[in-house]
Amino acid sequence: MTTDNQTMPLLRMSGISKSFPGVRALECVNFEVGEAEIHAFLGENGAGKSTLLKILSGAQSQDSGRIFFDGSDTNFASPRAAQMAGIVTIYQEFTLAPDMTIAENVFIGREPGSRLFVSRRALEQQTQALMERIGLDRSPNALVRDLSVAEQQMVEIARAISMKSRLIVMDEPTSALSRTEVQKLFAIIRALKRDGISTIFVTHRLEEVFEICDRYTVLRDGRHVGAGSVSETSIDGIIRMMVGRELGLLVKRQSTYATPDIALAVEELSRRRKNTDASAIELHGVWFNVKKGEILGIAGLVGAGRTETARAIFGADKIDSGRIIVDGTEVQITSPRDAIDYGIGLVPEDRKQQALFLSLAIRTNLSIASHDLISSLGVFINADKEDQLVDEYKSLLNIRMSSPDQIIGNLSGGNQQKVVLARWLALRPKVLIVDEPTRGIDVGAKVEVHNLLFEMAASGIAIIVISSELPEILALSDRIVTMREGRITGEIAGADADQEKLMTLMTLTKDRAA
Amino acid sequence: MIKSPDKETDQGIDAFSFLARFAPLIFLLLLMAVFAILEPRFLSSVNLFNVMRQVSITGLLAIGMTFVILTAGIDLSVGSLLAFAGLVAAAVAKGGMQDRFTVGDGAIGYGWPLAALAAIAVGLLGGALQGIAITKLKVPAFVVTLGGMSVFRGAALLFAAGGPISGFQPSFAWWGQGRIGPVPVPVIIFLFAALIAHIVLRYTRYGRRVYAVGGNPEAARLAGVNVTAVIWSVYIIMGFFAGLGAFVLAARLNSAEAVAGTGYELTVIASVVIGGTSLFGGSGSIFGTVIGAVLIGVLLNGLVLMNVSSYVQQIIIGVIIVLAVAFDTFAKSRRRKA
């Protein structure tokens, strides 16, 4: 199987490197896909998969390296150029126009007809033929808005076929599908293979790789770490390749401050997908607890429902059912205000979009949640008290800033994050949820933030840490729960955990036994 | 490793933001100098107080509009709401609408306090209703207040049945025509209101929330701010100033009519934007708005003194609004690059 194609493969990317400011995203990566092959493209979050696929689809250009497609040396200047050559990418967020029909979407920009006028008849007939080929049982004139997620995906595939593509890239096509829908998708992919069309298949569900894929490639930290025939490896083997990096700077903590008292417990937290938002992630009976002084890590791949769980507890998103228990008492949380009043804080994953007022002063950013502490007569902001507050946390957290009136947008990412942490610390919360505590900040500041989290735990705060970086979860957590597809899939003591164990729990379907 | 580049951009930003902050004031002083040279009558105290009195009505509205625009909202209905509120106040003061209906005993009407309260009540109610449509029905503020612009104008026309209501008691008219020392009463009202608004925005918890909601509504919500309440409140504040402005305008003209305040939305929004408040929300000040309002008043007055036609004045105001927003966008992009 590994040597079934002695000639040039359909796609060969060789020595691809790409850097962004401060990050080396890809380093001399090789990637090959054969004719009529279903190829699994695997790696952890941030391994460089998306970057490589963007280069392949013409959305970005590589710093160095060459791409051979269908025997010729190519470089795609734009997504359009890649499509013309026969490479079509189907992203997780579909690129369909919801208020246009299936037919209009399939042939958007390439409508059959004369130069000026579209031939509706030809449009419908050609779409009908494509739909029959992939088994989409709808009228070509149905509005895309009225289709299910799976059907919309089929429209994307129909569009890809209509472009005479040779290679279809599917970025996590199964993440939003039900079991039966996945089987239907696999049938389509196999049919495409019989017609000589190759598929690059990105997924976090490793068992799917063994169900449908011929070959695989694994990236880790921007490097190619393995490739081969699926029949010659195992799930364990692939997991080892995906996580096998060294821990580097992050050292596993020694001491623990966990007490036996449960600060926060969540039971049967559920959230269903609304029709209006197909990309929303569902939660299914999420349950865990965190004790005073404990750092609980929540590990999971993108889309596992970690952030959604945090937002649900904090009242930022509505939940359909479930119980939240703070200090032994069940509480009703319907807004972030409620959560704050119960002593829960949230440092959100996207600092700039969800936490900061970039155009406003540091003082405004730091004190926004704690006006009660710094007001006079309950109405005015007492500037002296506010200055004290800022000064206190400036020295406590070692925030490098020139004055409280400095615009926060001018601080480095690490210092911005410290201000956000200070915002919550000032409230002396019982529970602090920290989503991606060190995203986008440099290594030095990272260590500082980690030490801060330890100090907070030592002071008795229950801390929930969500991170896409497994080494970070391992370094910080007393205990770790893993999630996948909106469910808790496992729990493991921090001391017993390693990346392979976590990855196994994060990628397997088996639910945690109650 | 972080410190040195931070420092550099800090100073670059500070010099630029200093200029950006005082650009309206600098422009105002330049404009006054030019008019003073071209037209000696401009600098006479009579003329300057005249300018200020004209500015005070749209200035009052601009104070309310500053709250609205700080939350990245807009209110196009101010002129219409002002006309309607003015008519209601006039009817209360005059004891009815000519021969159509009467208010109070024997149709002699009430004193100015009740008339003022009536105008403000109408403004508050109009603002509150629009605020509900914006926050609860989730209709964009632009659309709600565009509708409100038509609704309140129609209500005013219906209420007045075409005719103005004129001739109030001297104690009513004093609020628009009187003076304390040499200073016209409307100017005092305007500057006093500006001072209060400045304190509210600058030094209160509420003011902080207005900026926070305008700067980043999602971050504000996640920090426990009741974003809906804040947005609702700014339209109520806008309504208050529309009512207050209506009372002062009726007093100044000694008359209220249904077409009063036509086109005010442009002047008012221009005052706020020229004063440096960002249409994208989150940055701006009452100080800037006062400068912006005076700047427009000075510009119009100078042009009138120089016999420039009112049509040309409209063109000039329009161009200046676009330039002011272009400057704001430019300042923003500079900030982002740094």
Give a short overview.
With about 525 residues, chain A is α/β, with parallel strands linked by helices. Chain A contains 17 helices and 22 strands.
What do you see in this structure?
The complex is a heterodimer of chains A (514) and B (338). Mean pLDDT of chain A is 86; it is low at 1-5 and 245-249. In chain A, 32% of the residues lie in helices and 25% in strands. Chain A is of the alpha/beta class and 514 residues long. In chain A, strand 14 (321-326) and strand 15 form a beta hairpin. Chain A contains 17 helices and 22 strands. Chain B is mainly alpha-helical. In chain B, 75% of the residues lie in helices and 4% in strands. A two-stranded antiparallel ribbon of chain B has the order 1-2. A two-stranded antiparallel ribbon of chain B has the order 3-6. In chain B, a hairpin with a 3-residue loop joins strand 1 and strand 2 (101-102). Residues 1-12 of chain B have low confidence and may be disordered.
SSE layout and pairing:
The complex is a heterodimer of chains A (514) and B (338).
Chain A: E1 11-20, E2 23-33, E3 38-42, H1 49-56, E4 64-69, E5 72-74, H2 79-85, E6 87-90, H3 102-106, H4 120-134, H5 149-162, E7 167-171, H6 179-194, E8 198-202, H7 206-212, E9 215-220, E10 223-229, H8 235-243, E11 262-271, E12 283-291, E13 295-299, H9 306-314, E14 321-326, E15 329-331, H10 336-341, E16 344-347, H11 351-355, H12 362-367, E17 375-376, E18 380-381, H13 383-396, H14 413-425, E19 431-435, H15 443-458, E20 462-466, H16 470-476, E21 479-484, E22 487-493, H17 499-507
Chain B: H1 3-38, H2 45-70, H3 78-94, E1 96-97, E2 101-102, H4 112-135, H5 141-160, E3 165-166, H6 170-177, E4 179-180, E5 183-184, H7 185-203, H8 205-215, H9 217-222, H10 227-253, E6 255-256, H11 264-274, H12 286-305, H13 310-337
Antiparallel strand pairs in B: 1-2, 3-6, 4-5
Helix pairs in contact in B: 1-12, 2-7, 2-10, 2-11, 2-12, 3-4, 3-5, 3-10, 4-5, 4-10, 6-10, 7-8, 8-10, 11-12, 11-13
